[in-house]
């Protein structure tokens, strides 16, 4: 019998509340806001948009859930960027820039993990607030018209990728590209709480 994932990671890392999240069918928010990328450039969500859509991943450098799912970031990138889906990871942890989420540490993370996609710093957690994101990782998939078609978790097993039974994100991307109906459009994001600027460290 498969053990629940929540027992495999610290109890403080709980599922996110759906209330306040960007609704399915919503337009891509703050699409033109420029963010500092690990490349040294300034990029926006529109800059990252591919001809077939955009995947936005709220992530960070300091969360064990990101450690567990990070290999899936790279797998999804390698499979779908060549199919016209842009990918951008966004670090919203404004309150922990001095505790592992600085730009220098973000650059080091991208290099170590061999990211081949944008990894930006969300100053003031503006994008995270606009999206209603609460966790890292927290996934938002938009079609080529900038409409939200999936949000939530990457799949149903962070720790054991070979034991994944429901690949929510990849299934959603496949359906989106094929012009088919996405069966599961929303799931609960599992991860560490985003460290918003207004929070006490």
Question: What Rg, in angstroms, do the CA atoms define?
Answer: 16 Å
Which regions are unreliable across 5 or more consecutive residues at pLDDT < 50?
1-19
Order of strands side by side in the largest beta sheet?
2-1-5-4-3-7-8
Distance between the termini: 39 Å
Helix and strand content put the structural class at: alpha+beta
Q: What number is the mean pLDDT? A: 89
Number of strands: 9
| Distinct helical segment count | 5
Q: What level of helicity do the residues show?
A: 10-25%
Strand residue percentage: 15-25%
Largest sheet: 7 strands, mixed
Query: How would you sum up the global shape?
Result: globular
Task: Give helix and strand order, one letter per element, not per position.
Answer: EEHEHEHEHEEEHE
Question: Helices, strands, pairings?
Answer:
Elements: E1 35-37, E2 42-43, H1 45-48, E3 53-58, H2 64-80, E4 85-91, H3 103-113, E5 118-121, H4 126-131, E6 135-136, E7 138-142, E8 148-152, H5 168-178, E9 192-193
Main traits of this protein?
201 residues; alpha+beta; two-stranded antiparallel ribbon; disordered N terminus
Textual characterization of the structure:
The structure is a single chain. This protein is an alpha+beta fold and 201 residues long. It has 5 helices and 9 strands. A hairpin with a 4-residue loop joins strand 1 and strand 2. Residues 1-19 have low confidence and may be disordered.
